[in-house]
Amino acid sequence: SALDTAKGGQAAPTVTICLVDELDYLLTRDFSVMYDFYSWPQTSAVPFIMIGIANTMDLPERLSNRLTSRAEVDIRRLIFKPYTQSEILTILEMRLTELDLPALTERGRKYISMKASSVAGDLRAALKICQRTIEMYRDEVNERELVYKAGNKIRGQKRAREESEGSAAAATTRDATSSAVGGPEPVKHEDIM
Asked: For the region Disordered, what residue ranges are annotated (predicted)?
């Protein structure tokens, strides 16, 4: 309906091209969505080309006869081969060069491209692996920072305690604690803290 509104309110272009990605996800039991797509070229006052991109190889065969038997519908199939390892690696390097991520070294990118090419050459698989690698790396860095900060805090507390044990205030505290307890041996500073 948005397309119909756009067609009616503007000067007609020479050709209208509509690109629909993931077309196979629009299949319904009654083919109503697909039927609307296929009817647009017939109702258009201008030449209309619809390009559908699908991962399903047998999409034309799965379409109902009601869609494919229309005289003006010309279905042509263009099959793209899966990405090779080198193509995936090139794409990853192009996308990741600006990020300068230590988590994704050259060796790591080669490994990811090899794994993704072995799974039907799906670039999305490679990108998901990269995304997960980056997430895991960031989590690890954050965890290390927390451990480092906690370690610094503990070291700081220990240093403060050691310094205070040698101070006059610490001696006064020991003496006061010793006489309050009534024992001959002074209470250790660690027992107080």
From this structure: 155-193
| pLDDT band with cut points at 50, 70 and 90 for residue 175 | low
Instruction: Give the number of domains in the chain.
Output: 2
In this structure, the answer to whether residues 60 and 99 fall within a common structural domain is no
What is the Cα–Cα distance from 31 to 60, expressed in whole angstroms?
A: 13
Residue 66 has pLDDT above 80, yes or no: no
Question: Burial letters for 35-57: b for 16+ Cβ neighbours within 10 Å, e otherwise?
Answer: eebbeebeebeeebebebebeee
Handedness of CA 41, 46, 51, 52 (dihedral sign): negative
Q: Quote the tokens at residue 85.
A: 């390892």
CB atoms within 10 A of CB 129: 20
**Over residues 25-45, mean pLDDT:** 72
Residue 159 resides in a domain: no
- Domain-embedded: residue 115: yes
The residue segments making up the domain with residue 131 are 85-147
Closest of 75, 64, 11, 5 to residue 33, by C-alpha: 64
Q: What is the pTM of this model?
A: 0.51
pLDDT at 1: 47
